[in-house]
Structures are given as structure tokens and as C-alpha cells.
Amino acid sequence: LPVQSAITQPRPGAAVPAGELTVKGYAWSGGGREVVRVDVSLDGGRTWRVARLGGERPAPGRAWAWALWELRAAVA
User: Fold this and answer.
1) CATH number of the domain that 62 lies in?
2) Per-residue b/e over 7-31, b at no fewer than 16 CB within 10 Å?
3) Domain range spanning residue 53?
4) Which of 2, 12, 33, 55 has the most CB atoms lying inside 10 A of its own CB?
């Protein structure tokens, strides 16, 4: 399966002040495959940034759970 992900912070419709923003979420894949990268777009898909994956790295073929990710970005 392709990687699936969800944004958990900020919440949908939240007012975001100018300055530094931290976007957080989780991602998962299928068949025990590890999530190795999450790309995030803050401008409707024009540009993409690579999020930082958190937590411990699973053994090969043992990635049966979701992976946390976060991205810090400047907001104008």
C-alpha cells in the first residue's frame, strides 16, 4: 500500500498566527513496510517539505504500527 497519513495538529479550521508553526501527524504503510518519508505541503501542493520522523525505527518487516512525524515551518 502507499503511505497514508493524517495531520493531528493544528486542528482543521484552526487560526494559525504568523511565525513558526509545528505541524504534527502520523503515517502508516502496509505489509510490515516501514514509513521512511513523509512529505508535507503547506501551499496546496505547489511545494513540498520532508517531515521529521519520530520514535524508534522498527526491524525490517516489523513495521506494523503507525509512525509519528512533525514539520516546523515559517508561516507568513
Assistant:
1) 2.60.40.650
2) eeeeeeeeeeeeeeeebbbbbbbee
3) 3-75
4) 33
Which residue in this structure is represented by grid cell 514539520?
Answer: 71
Confidence (pTM): 0.82
Residues 21/51, Cβ–Cβ less than 8 Å: no
How far is it, in rounded angstroms, from Cα 28 to Cα 8? 14
Residue 36 CA to residue 52 CA, distance in Å, equals 10
Region for 44 from its dihedrals, namely left if φ exceeds 0, alpha if ψ lies in -120 to 50, beta otherwise: left
